[in-house]
Amino acid sequence: MSANRSRLLFACLAAAFSLNAQAAALTAGSPPSSAPTTFLDTKSGKIEGFMPDVAAEVAKRQHLEINYTAIPFSTLIQSVIAGKIDMIVAGMTPTEERAKRITFSQPVTAFGAGLVVRDDNKKTYNSWQDVKGDIVGTMAGTDYTQSLMASGIAKEVKVYDSPADMTRDLSLGRIAAGMNDYPILKAQEKAGGLKGMHVIDGYKPEHVSPMAFGVKKGNDKLMAEINSALTAMKDDGTLQTIKTKWGMP
């Protein structure tokens, strides 16, 4: 083989390798302030948490590379539909309405909403029926926000984009209670972010919902890779190990 033909062959192989490498690189969107599900580590500048750890194991098994961008929960679905991201890595429930817009993976875990109140609030809260007459804060884009609004139980439902904004208003007495994913509230409490407030451990959520990854409709190859890895991780115990690490159910 001549030197010119060798160089040409090498160039073609290099180009093919480059294209494959680019195809394997994904952009994932995650909320930056939903620890322990997903959060932005201010020291490393990276998105971390339970769902990113699961996604990292999926990527490892399927020879993928995931790059993260911080996106508010309420705009994740539109971001994946618009092609700004390839994958939603968040504590998102695959509701019927959401499933009409994007494709969800098999469930990764499941949990319900928790309730946080000020320490001087002596009212008993066993279920969301007990928020009757209260002004309640919830997180934008969550399924229980819509359910609570539709129920008409609360006097008023205030919607927030970040857990910190909600708990700030709670501490100032602008709302009587705050509703968010139970693991997120417990992580805030453990980190000392709920001074003068506490999570009600005896509160029973209206629904316990599954959490899953999401991709754009039509991206069947990526979804098949995600589901294949998740099945294997459930079978070999890897998923349970990650759940235990982050205190997830």
Automatic annotation (TrEMBL):
The keyword Translocase does not apply. Residues 25-249 form the Solute-binding protein family 3/N-terminal domain. It comes from the Bacteria. The keyword Signal applies. This is ABC transporter substrate-binding protein. CDD domains: PBP2_peptides_like (cd13530). Residues 1-23 form the signal peptide. Keywords: Signal. PANTHER family: ARGININE-BINDING EXTRACELLULAR PROTEIN ARTP, MEMBRANE-BOUND LYTIC MUREIN TRANSGLYCOSYLASE F. Belongs to the bacterial solute-binding protein 3 family.
